[in-house]
Structure formats: structure tokens, C-alpha cells
Design the sequence.
């Protein structure tokens, strides 16, 4: 099929590759304009642009999907436009351009988690099942008819990065299947149940700040949802400390320990502040490779942390380097 692909972040790259490797003709790739990034804040291409240039595809980077851009895409006569985390809403005029409409790869089981951050929201909400939806796009946000869906289990070790990689691969395969059904005239869609819809907003860096007054379980979800970007964080005085991997201090940890560990990690009992004597944000103990911190309810084990401008390290290594002891605070 003659395809225009629209996407921007890393999530969209495997999906673009899947469409191309299935033999479809990529007429053009539409992605967001280069944005400043990195320490030097130089203009950087999106991951999708880098992939498209490497493969020799025509690349369009409109600030807005205006009439000129829509006219240019219309002249290409695409049979279908495929969209994966593009970053802009598509106007109705563009939705009418391709013969078979516009297909969106959405990383959730719609109508749950409509919106910009479904992967992060699934983790924040403690979902154990998510998935990918191939949807025919309409004017309303993520509300179009569903063509295909595939479920995926969220592992307790998953964070936004690992879950995104898994859903991206699944989304690419599902999109290829959808294109095959369209080409064969066998595509069947069903309307979404709008009454069951939930929505997730675009997240800000400030949303990644840990509030130690919250329950440890909620903070553990927050760490997973914001890893790798932008990274959950707290403060020790003026020092910003990113929390890269954490788990509940329940004695026996499954899948929450650092990636190199296998199976359960039995937490030993070191010197610590007596039970119930800690305020939220206070260090309870430094044990094994983790730093144990009191929360509004329960305690959080900080397995991997990253001080500003420093490499990744264990929570215990950070505590030793800063000479922290039980009773010290991880607060501004």
C-alpha cells in the first residue's frame, strides 16, 4: 500500500520499520521539527527523522498541519496514513485525504487511557494489563472505531521504557496486520464505548517530584512511570536526586531489585530507626544496596539513584558517599 507515516519519538521507530519491512511504499515521513536538546541545547532531529533520513525517505517537518502541508500530502495520493505518537492532532481535512483513512497505533486498550501518556498512566494507576489498539482516526481524541487490539501483561519490573519498547514492537506487528486486512477488504471495526473512556493528560517534569507523604506503593509506581524520562526525583537540601529504580520495603522483593539481580532478594535487617519513629522522607536504614525511606504509608527502597551530573549508583553507595545515616532526611 501507498503509506504516509507520521510519528516522532523512539516509540514510533520500530513501527515505521515494521511497515517498511512488510513491503509497503513509504511515500513520506511526517515528524515534529528539530528541537533543542542535550547539554548544548543544539537542535536535534526526532528519532523518526533520523530513521527516515537513514532509509532515504522524504521527510516533512511542519510546525502545524496547515493547508499547505495537507495539500502536499494529498498530491502524494496515499492509500492510508499511519500515525504513531506524532505529537499533533490531525485536522479533519487531513483525515479525509487517504482512501482508507488514518490509522493510529495507540499504546493502551482503548477506550481506557485516551490521551498523550497512556504508558505512564497505566503504570501510575497500577494496571496489570495494557495493550495496543489500532484505531481509525476521527476528530475526537482517540475515540475512533477500533480495528484491532492486543493485550499485554505489565510485569512488576516494567518501567515506562521497557513497557514502551514492548508495546512498540507489538504495535508494529498489529499495524502490519491491519494494513493486510485493509488491502484484502476484510477490515472490520467496532465503535468504542465512550462511557468507559478514561483520559490521561500530558505530564510535566514537576509531576515526577516524589512527595514522601504519599504511600510507598504509589511512589514506587511513580518511579516506574517516569523512568527513563524525565526520571522521578526528590531533593536532599538543594541537591536533586533522581530515583531510577525502587521497590516496596516488604522484606522479600520480586523484580524490584536492580536489573542484574535474579529472583528474590532477601532484605537483611541493619541498624535502623525504630519502627514508627520516622517522619515521611526520613532515612530508616541503609541496607544491602538500597536506601530505605519512610513514606506516608510504608517504606520505599531506593535501589538505583542518580545525583545531578553523576553516574547511576546504588542507593547504599549514594548514602555512603554522602555519609548519610538513619534519621537523616531526603527533603529540601
Sequence:
Amino acid at each position: 500500500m501507498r503509506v504516509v507515516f507520521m510519528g516522532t519519538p523512539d516509540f514510533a521507530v520500530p513501527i515505521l520499520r515494521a511497515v517498511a519491512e512488510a513491503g509497503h511504499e513509504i511515500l513520506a515521513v511526517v515528524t515534529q521539527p528539530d528541537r533543542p536538546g542535550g547539554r548544548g541545547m543544539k537542535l536535534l532531529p526526532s528519532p523518526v527523522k533520523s530513521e527516515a533520513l537513514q532509509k532515504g525517505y522524504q521527510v516533512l517537518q511542519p510546525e502545524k498541519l496547515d493547508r499547505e502541508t495537507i495539500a502536499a500530502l494529498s498530491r502524494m495520493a496515499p492509500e492510508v496514513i499511519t500515525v504513531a505518537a506524532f505529537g499533533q492532532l490531525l485536522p479533519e481535512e487531513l483525515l479525509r485525504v487517504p482512501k482508507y483513512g488514518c490509522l493510529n497505533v495507540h499504546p493502551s486498550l482503548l477506550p481506557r487511557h485516551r490521551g498523550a501518556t497512556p504508558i505512564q498512566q497505566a503504570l501510575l494507576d497500577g494496571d496489570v494489563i495494557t495493550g495496543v489498539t489500532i484505531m481509525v482516526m476521527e476528530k475526537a481524541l482517540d475515540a475512533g472505531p477500533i480495528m484491532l487490539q492486543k493485550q499485554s501483561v505489565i510485569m512488576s519490573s516494567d518501567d515506562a521504557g521497557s513497557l514502551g519498547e514492548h508495546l512498540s514492537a507489538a504495535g508494529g506487528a498489529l499495524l502490519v496486520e491491519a494494513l493486510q486486512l485493509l488491502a484484502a477488504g476484510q477490515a472490520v471495526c467496532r465503535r468504542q464505548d465512550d462511557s468507559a473512556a478514561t483520559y490521561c493528560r500530558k505530564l510535566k517534569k514537576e509531576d515526577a517530584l516524589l512527595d514522601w507523604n504519599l504511600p510507598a506503593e504509589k511512589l514506587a509506581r511513580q518511579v516506574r512511570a517516569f523512568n527513563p524520562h524525565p526520571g522521578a526525583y526528590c531533593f536532599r537540601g538543594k541537591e536533586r536526586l533522581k530515583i531510577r529504580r525502587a521497590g516496596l520495603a516488604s522484606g522479600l522483593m520480586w523484580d524490584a531489585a536492580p536489573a542484574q539481580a535474579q529472583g528474590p532478594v532477601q532484605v537483611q535487617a541493619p541498624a535502623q530507626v525504630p519502627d514508627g519513629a520516622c517522619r515521611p522522607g526520613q532515612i530508616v536504614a541503609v541496607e544491602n544496596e538500597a536506601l530505605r525511606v519512610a513514606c506516608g504509608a510504608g517504606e520505599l527502597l531506593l535501589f538505583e539513584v542518580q545525583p545531578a551530573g553523576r553516574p547511576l549508583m546504588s542507593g547504599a553507595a549514594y548514602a555512603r558517599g554522602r555519609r548519610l545515616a538513619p534519621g537523616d532526611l531526603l527533603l529540601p
Observations:
- The CA atoms of residues 80 and 100 lie 5 Å apart.
- Residues 251-269 have pLDDT under 50 and may be disordered.
- The first strand starts at residue 2 and ends at 7.
